[in-house]
Each structure stands twice: as C-alpha cells, then as structure tokens.
Design brief:
Length: about 550
C-alpha cells in the first residue's frame, strides 16, 4: 500500500489527524461513558439504555457523520482532490472538526442529573479508547485514501458512526483487568477492617429510604460514638471499598453502610466485604423491577443482607411495609419489627411547612420530638434508627438530641422557602411509595399546588400502570401538573383525566430546565411546588 510508505509525508499527517480524532471522540462519547458508569459498568444496562431511548443519541452521532461526510465529499469534488495535490484533501476536514467541536460543546453544556465522575477506572477507559480510536481512525484513512480517492482523509467522518459499538467493546476488553484492580481494592479494604475488630458494622437496605435512614442513624449514633457513614449514595462494591479505604478511621466505633442492588447477588457481595452484624430493612417495593423482573427477586436480593448476618446478628424491620414484614417472617436470627404501634412508636404525627413533629414512645416513656424532615415515612425511618440506637446502648436523651439535630437530606423531600413560594424538592428519585408520601405532604401545604414530574421509571412491565395510578393520585392533590419528557406523558395524562383533571391544567416540558421556564407563565406568589423525581440521565 503506497500510503504506508515511510517516505510518504501524508502518512505522518494521517497519524496526527488520527490522534486528534481519537481525542475528540473521547469527548464526543461522553454520553456513552456516562451510561456505562450509571449502569454500574454492566454492559446490560448500556444496551437497555439504547433500547429504551430508541437509540436517539446514536442517531445524533450518525447525523454528525453524514453531515460531515457530505461536506467533505462536496469540498473534495470542488477541489478535484483526485487530480490535485493532497493538500486539498484536508480542506473538507475543517467542516468535520467544526461540527464535532460544536457537538461536544452542546453535549457538555446540556444539564445533567448525575454528571460523569472522573474516576481512575473512567480514566483508564478513556486512555484505552484514545489509543483504540486513533488506530481505528488511521485504518479508515488508509482504506479511504487507497480505495475511495474521492473521500481520502474525509474517511475520518465515518468514525463517529462506530462509537456506540466501540465504547462498549473497549469496556468489555478492560473488564478482566478491572476485576483484578477491584479485587485489589477489596483485599485492601478487608485488611483495614481486620484492624478494627471491635467495629460495630451496620448494613441498611431496602427499595427506598436507605439514604435517609443512613443519615438519621448517623445523627443519632454520633451522640455516643465516633461514626463513619458511607457518604452520598455510595452503595455499590467499589463505593463501599472506597468508604473503607478512604473514609474509615481506625478509631471509628461504628460503620454504617448503605447497600443497594439492581440484581440478585449484589448485596451478598457487599456483605462479604463488610460482614455486618446488624441490619435495617427500610421497606421493599417495586423499585428496579426493570432489572429484577419479579417482586420475589427483589425480596431475595434484599434478604441477602439478613442471610449474611452471623448467628448472633440482629435485624430490624419496618412493620409499616408489607415487603419488610415478609422478610421479617423469613429471618432466622434475632429480629425486631418496628412501627407506629409497639414498644417504640410514633404517635400524633403532625406535618407543616416547618417539618414533622410527633410523640416518640420508648417503652412507657414519651418524648415530644420536632424534626425538619418532612413526612410520616421519616418517622418510620426514625423508629428503625431508635431501635438500633437502643440496642447499641444510647440513652433516651441522646436519641432525642440526635433526632432534633437532623437536617433534610438534599433532594429527598427537602423543603426550600423562597421569598414567594415553597418548594418541595423530591427530585433525587421516586418510588411508588415515595411518590405517595410526597403527595401526602403536598396535600397538607397551604396554597395552590403544582407538581413537576417525569413520572416513575425502572418499573418494567408495571411502569405504565403505576404512572396511570400516579396521575390519578396527583389529580386529587394538585392544581397544576407539569409532565417532563415524553416517556410517561400519555400514562400520567390518562390517570389525571380519569379523575376529571382538565387538559388546561396539564403542561408538558422537554426537560426540567424547560419546565422551570414554563412555570413562570402560571406560578403565582404563595404556590407550593413539588419536584417529584428527575429522570436519570440514562432516560435522556
């Protein structure tokens, strides 16, 4: 092949262009990287995204390639590159690089719920991607120069078409190496945990309420112990390894670990690392039905925490949730069922714009409690934590102090007061149970009520029905509803209409940012606005 002749300067220019293109494609593939990361680096989640979004993002990459290639071919024809010096073969690439850069700028400026995290694993993936795409780009240029003379260096324009396949391919190539690396993190974490033989280790799981319960328990136990809590939503194996290796200190007395799962076996892996003695089950619902497929699979996954407890382990369950009660019956270790009625209970629950107040009963003693958290479900989570605190030797006074110090968890029914309105920010995610609670809190607020929501996701075959029901429930509370995105629009609208909620009160917005702009047309002073869920980035 003449192009590969060492004396051919065009070959060296092609190498430079290929490296530049490899770098640009790493930036242009941001969305693909983000989805792989959001899917827990599981390729199944990536292809589910392609299926659920009808590959809409892939079509943008194809359009980028087609538009660029047309411009390049037209330019090459105008300059008659087949019969002239190769210098003119590069002119058409100006269009390709310009369109690609504009594409990248728009991509990075788009709002994101959970931006791509620049982890060491993602850095490794990007480096290998850069090498692979650069080689692939050079190969395309060589083929086009040799066999498609009317295209020549414009062959670079075809590379974006292959990126939706190249990204997962490179990811799969790296999986064996990543397993070796994660095993190293696990070994390091286990070694560190061995240095803390007296560490009290608590696992928290459930379909909803895990993060809130974790923060509540941390606040209460901190009244007596030095506590290490997994921050944010660190609830995966790499996340908990990072907690132990980077956050746990050798003089910590308690380790609280949130344990999430999208598939059977996920929690078992977490327990093999942490080996908790105590477990809290907040509640079991239909969240992540898309990956679990059945309610029984969800129950099995959450029960892995209980099954992993030692013979002297203790598990605490929420009596207000049927799924949690079912797991209570299966439990073989020491167990407690905690709810509104019983040895530890909450009575006289009152909710207003300042928070939630109730009477906390611990045995025969009663304590008036006030917290900034909104909703009776927080009272349920508090009771679970109170029982755990009693088991770990805290006094009633310490428990009450810990509850009163609680601050709202961001984006989980967080109350925000503006000069003109009250905002209920429940945008982190939404389950069937959580959305019901959010609406119950909204109902107690004074003023016109507005709900902004994309509906409920990750419910598999139940998604259509649950969004229809969600619409029916909103109709009984809200004065206006803004439905974000097209995903669940028809199902929610049918539910609203079935309760005689007029179309003139239903609005639609492409995304959350456009919904906020739309609100300016009808929101008045004194209105209460509920943001219920924000679509994960893998639904956009």
């Amino acid at each position: 092949m003449e192009f590969l002749d060492a004396t051919n300067i065009n070959m060296y220019i092609a190498i430079i262009l290929s490296l530049v293109n490899g770098l640009l494609m790493c930036f242009a593939s941001y969305k693909f990287f983000q989805i792989i990361q959001l899917s827990g680096y599981k390729i199944k989640g990536y292809f589910l995204w392609l299926k659920d979004t009808k590959a809409s993002y892939v079509s943008r990459m194809i359009f980028l390639s087609l538009l660029s290639s047309i411009c390049v071919i037209v330019t090459n024809a105008l300059f008659n590159v087949y019969h002239t010096e190769a210098l003119y073969s590069y002119i058409g690439l100006i269009f390709y690089f310009y369109f690609t850069i504009v594409f990248i700028i728009n991509l990075y400026s788009a709002p994101k719920k959970i931006p791509l995290k620049n982890t060491t694993r993602m850095t490794r993936l990007n480096v290998v991607m850069l090498i692979f795409v650069s080689i692939f780009s050079f190969f395309i240029i060589a083929l086009c120069t040799e066999y498609l003379s009317f295209v020549k260096f414009g062959g670079l324009c075809f590379v974006p078409i292959f990126m939706p396949i190249i990204v997962p391919f490179v990811h799969m190539i790296l999986i064996p190496f990543e397993k070796i690396i994660i095993n190293g993190y696990i070994a390091r974490a286990k070694y560190k945990l061995k240095k803390c033989p007296n560490l009290i280790k608590i696992g928290i799981t459930g379909s909803f309420g895990k993060t809130s319960t974790k923060y509540i328990l941390n606040s209460i136990l901190s009244e007596k112990y030095k506590v290490c809590m997994s921050p944010h939503s660190f609830n995966t194996l790499p996340g908990l390894c990072k907690v132990v290796n980077n956050y746990l200190e050798l003089d910590d007395k308690v380790l609280i670990c949130e344990m999430g799962a999208r598939n059977i076996g996920d929690i078992k892996k977490l327990c093999n690392l942490i080996n908790p003695k105590y477990a809290i089950i907040t509640g079991v619902g239909t969240q992540h039905m898309l990956t679990f497929k059945t309610k029984e699979n969800i129950l099995k996954a959450k029960f892995e925490l209980v099954e992993s407890l030692p013979s002297d382990g203790i598990a605490i369950f929420n009596s207000e949730n049927n799924g949690s009660k079912e797991l209570f019956l299966r439990c073989q270790v020491k167990k407690f069922l905690v709810g509104k009625k019983g040895e530890i209970s909450a009575e006289n629950i009152e909710i207003d714009e300042n928070g939630t107040s109730f009477t906390l009963k611990i045995g025969k003693k009663e304590y008036p409690v006030k917290t900034k958290l909104l909703g009776s479900h927080f009272a349920e989570n508090i009771l679970l934590c109170v029982k755990m605190a009693k088991l770990l030797g805290l006094t009633d006074a310490q428990i009450v102090r810990g509850i009163e110090k609680l601050l709202p968890v961001p984006h989980r029914l967080e109350l925000i007061k503006t000069p003109t309105n009250i905002i209920l920010d429940d945008a982190y995610n939404a389950s069937v149970e959580g959305s019901e609670m959010a609406l119950s809190v909204l109902k107690k607020m004074k003023g016109r009520k507005i709900v902004i929501t994309p509906g409920l996701v990750e419910l598999g075959k139940l998604e259509s029905l649950e969004n229809f029901n969600f619409g029916k429930k909103m109709a009984k509370v809200a004065d206006f509803v803004v439905i974000v995105n097209n995903l669940n629009f028809e199902d929610i609208k049918r539910g609203l209409n079935s309760e005689n909620f007029g179309d003139d009160k239903i609005y639609q917005a492409e995304d959350l940012s456009k919904a906020k702009i739309l609100m300016k047309d009808f929101v008045k002073e004194g209105d209460v606005i509920l943001f219920e869920n924000d679509l994960p980035d893998n639904y956009i």
